[in-house]
Amino acid sequence: MFLTLDPELQVLGEAANGAEAVALAETLKPDVVLMDLLMPVMSGLDATAAIRARADAPQVIILTSVMEDAAVTAVFRAGAVGYLLKSTEADELRRAIKEAAAGHPQFSPQVAARLLMEAQQTAGQDAFTDQEAEVLRLAAQGLSHGEIAGRLLVPEPAVHGAIGGILDKLRLADQAQAALLEFSNQLLSRPDSPALMTTLVQETQRLLATDACAVLLLSVDRQSLVFRAASGWRQDPVASGRRLALHWESAVGAGQVMRTGQAWQTADLATVVADSAREAAADAAAAWLDEGFRGHALIPLVAEGRVVGVLALNSRRPRRLSDEEIRFLRLLANQAALVLVQARLLEAERVQHGLEEDLAVARQIQLSLLPEHSPQMSGWEFAAAYRAAQQVGGDLYDFVELPGTPPRLGLLIADVSGKGAAAALFMAHTRAVVRAAALTEKGPAAALELANAQILKDNQTSHFVSAFYGVLDTASGRLTFANGGHNRPLWWRAAAGDFTELNSQGIVLGLLPAVELEELEKSLAPGDLVVLYTDGITEAINPAEELFGEARLRGAIAAVEPKTPQRVVDAILEAVQAFSSGAPQADDFTLVAVRRLADGG
Predict the structure, then answer these.
(1) Each residue of 440-470: b (16+ CB within 10 Å) or e?
(2) Strands (E), 355-407
(3) Nearest partner of 484 among 440, 530, 515, judged by Cα
């Protein structure tokens, strides 16, 4: 881990879930804990609150890939001293850890912008001071604490104090914090989204002592809100499949909440209906009045930075929620939205697991399309290797036994643009097309040109393919070949002890309706070796982001003695692996090696 590179920092341990993080924090007594927001077993929010509740607690920085506006105030209220994205630069993260250890709050410009927006919305005794709001505004511009101090002409400790004051105001009173944690635990105990939403409406109704509560989510067409959970209704709107038309332009009600992401309420819905200038709002309000509701509040549900629905609270008598109640409701809604996101991620993991199983089957099918073994032909040796960067890939190679005499063998290597399942499907199609073209008895150039026409005709995507196809006369050693925009194979000439390229000219297949490819012929002498490869070999990278390159490829081949095809293929793969030093494979690897044996060999 890069943190270990800093002599001033020591990594004491790593936790696989929130509960383990709490236990390790108590046992190891660290100065700072880096906590992911979406932790299994116990959420990062709950784990942070549990850690900070203890005496002599370490500082906690939320370090997450989720730039979730709804989470920002919640994590600081739980006691975190920082909220940073995983994309934060390494040097900046190390600096933030050291600052946090000294008790100085740390957050990204995005988080500062969110806190500033909260400050602009907040009224009453918890409102931020002008200086606190100015500190947030400058932090949102990406300024460091020292730069902020210089801009405001105050000492840096004053900036730390202002930010500390901001966070203190964000933290709930003990009773509200306890209610939040209880509510969070209730949500986390529900394994799926419907159960989560049912818990949300029931607990919100109980905590706010209101007559009814409902969750409405945005429909796919974005034209209505659909009831997903309800509590306290006389006629269950979920069971009846009830929807409310969404008026995005409305200055009141759900349209205003969905458009602005701000809470909205009225003490008495009857006054909204009575306002004839708001016909759309009156229509929407009438749906609630049918249930006898008067007091009406709508809180936005924000997930992944988007308003995805509303939390509706209703009373059957006129009632207006206090600012404190609205703030607390926003917190509950924020927490609920986070857990709903987590539930969706878990569901996505289940779907991903199913996809991975399907891809494993697809991989077996794809491998079955490649030659089961290399040809066994008198006077010749062959070897090949294929390694996909993902479960399936877009490279292919093939040996095509051509009819007639003298014995001839088609050698094909190709690389479809892109990677993954789409490239694999295109690869299977390309193999069938090129093989069919090769069996027409036409030369390599004509075969690839015919394949190009068929690939372009059937191509409904933006994929294209580079391909090298050669026909080897095994009796004479003549290799006739054409190249459709592929890496030029390397020809090791044993007598001369050097390399030359099989450098016929041509462009990739599947882009232009008519291509003309150059066809050349070379004679392979006894001991000569030809290596076909895809660009995954030469474009393999190491941790320094250097390319393996053709020079290293030639060096790996030249170093092998004797140059049997299998030894050459193995040596190339070993050289690439050693060069990469653990860097992930970015592209598919494919190699084909052909060697002519000594006469009579």
Answers:
(1) eeebbbbbbbbbbbbbbeebeeebbbbbbbb
(2) 380-387, 395-402
(3) 515
CA dihedral 308, 309, 311, 317 (to 10 degrees): 160
- At 152-187, the pLDDT tens digits run 888 888 888 787 777 766 654 444 555 555 666 655
Longest dimension (CA), the chain: 103
Nearest to 299 by CA among 273, 270, 334, 348: 334
Dihedral over Cα of 185, 190, 193, 196: its sign: negative
CB 310 within 8 A of CB 317: no
pLDDT band at 123 (very low <50, low <70, confident <90, very high): very low
- Residue-wise pLDDT for 209-258, tens only, equals 899 999 988 888 888 899 989 999 998 999 988 888 888 888 788 888 99
Summarize the chain as % helix, strand, coil (round to 5): 45, 20, 35
pTM of the model as a whole: 0.46
pLDDT of residue 594: 97
Residue 87 to residue 71: CA distance in whole angstroms: 17
243 vs 356, higher pLDDT: 243
374, 551 in Cβ contact below 8 A? no
DSSP per-residue codes, 53-104: TSTTPPEEEEEES---HHHHHHHHHTT-SEEEETTS-HHHHHHHHHHHHTT-
Residues in CB range of 254: below 8 A, 6 or more apart: 216, 225, 244, 246, 247, 284, 298, 310
Beta-sheet strand order (sheet of 32-35): 32-35, 59-64, 82-85, 106-107
Residue 124 has pLDDT above 50, yes or no: no
pLDDT at 1 over 80: no
Q: What is the 3-state secondary structure (H, E, C) of 208-223?
A: HCCCEEEEEEECCCCC
Length of the chain equals 601
290-294, 320-324, 446-450, 516-520: range with lowest mean pLDDT: 320-324
> What SS3 state is found at 147?
helix
- From start to end of 255-391, where are the E strands? 264-266, 295-303, 306-315, 380-387
User: Is residue 402 a contact partner of residue 469, using CB atoms and an 8 Å limit?
Assistant: no
pLDDT at 580: 87
Say which residue the tokens 């701000």 belong to.
262
> Which has the closest alpha carbon to 535: 457, 443, 466?
466
Residue 359 CA to residue 364 CA, distance in Å, equals: 9
For residue 568, give both structure tokens: 């050459």
Max mean pLDDT range (50-64, 72-86, 264-278): 50-64
Q: Distance (Å, rounded) from C-alpha 17 to C-alpha 28? A: 16
Check whether 280 has a pLDDT greater than 70: no
Evaluate whether 227 touches 214 at the Cβ level (below 8 Å): yes
Residue type for position 445:
A
SS3 letters across 518-570: CEEEEECCCCCEEEEECHHHHCCECCCCCECHHHHHHHHHHCCCCCCHHHHHH
Phi, psi dihedral angles at 339 (to 5 degrees): -70, -35
Residue 76: CB partners within 8 Å, gap ≥ 6?
A: 83, 115, 167, 170, 171
- Whole-number pLDDT of residue 125: 40
> Between residues 268 and 457, which one has the greater pLDDT?
268
Two tokens at 338?
């986070």
